[in-house]
Specification:
CATH class: Alpha Beta
CATH architecture: 3-Layer(aba) Sandwich
Helix content: 25-40%
Strand order of the largest sheet: 1-3-2-4-6-5
Distance between the termini: 28 Å
Number of helices: 8
Number of strands: 6
Largest sheet: 6 strands, mixed
């Protein structure tokens, strides 16, 4: 299995009927501002450096972001915030992520979502999360260089813990480590979890998450990645 083969499987997935119906309806109806664009309307694969030291896990594509552009965290405000920080901290060659083919390259980082389809109200069901998590697990297996999983929000933190405690020889993590901004946890695999508030407008507009706080996450991720 290669990342390219996994991407082909991800982008043709139809495991979750509710998500299939929603993502395709959004792609047909569109937002007025993007009425002239052709929406992706399919599951959104991970994106980045196949030799990444840092694997960044978000929640799910935005209905008019990744579901429109076909690239994770691309074409929405959360992505603007995330990639600007990755640029400032040396992981991206440019601070913007507008559309696939815009020249964006990541160096040492790979970005993905726990759920690969845009969910209604940005709230995946537990069953939908569980259907999708094997894709992230396979990506991590295909990127053995990744030493740090940066979890954008509590949903991604929980997803990463679920990935870490499934499979042959895995064990439950008790007590279960709690999510928090800059929370750290060493996994049995030797990888590290690192928590960050999600770069949603709910957090960035209110000041709960600042640019300095986001940058500090990736600076710390760099430090953990070379341990």
């Amino acid at each position: 299995m290669s990342l390219a083969a996994l991407e082909r499987r991800v982008t043709t997935c139809r495991r979750c009927p509710r998500l299939v119906e929603w993502r395709e309806r959004v792609a047909r109806e569109k937002r007025a501002a993007y009425a002239g664009e052709e929406y992706w309307g399919r599951p959104v694969p991970g994106f980045g450096d196949p030799h990444a030291r840092i694997y960044i896990l978000g929640l799910a594509p935005a209905a008019h972001g990744g579901n429109r552009t076909g690239r994770v965290f691309t074409g929405d405000r959360s992505g603007d915030w995330l990639f600007a920080s990755l640029h400032r901290t040396g992981f991206a060659n440019q601070p913007t992520s507008l559309h696939a083919g815009d020249g964006l390259e990541l160096h040492g980082a790979f970005v993905a979502a726990a759920v690969r389809c845009a969910p209604p109200a940005n709230r995946p069901l537990p069953s939908e999360r569980d259907n999708c998590l094997p894709y992230a697990a396979e990506e991590l297996a295909l990127i053995p260089s990744a030493r740090v999983i940066v979890c954008l929000g509590g949903f991604a933190w929980d997803a990463a813990l679920r990935i870490a405690t499934t499979g042959d020889g895995a064990r439950s993590l008790q007590p279960r480590p709690k999510f928090g901004h800059m929370a750290e946890f060493g996994l049995p695999s030797g990888r590290h979890l690192l928590g960050s508030y999600h770069p949603s407008q709910q957090n960035t507009f209110t000041g709960k998450l600042t640019e300095e706080m986001t940058d500090a996450v990736f600076v710390r991720a760099s430090e953990l990645a070379i341990r």
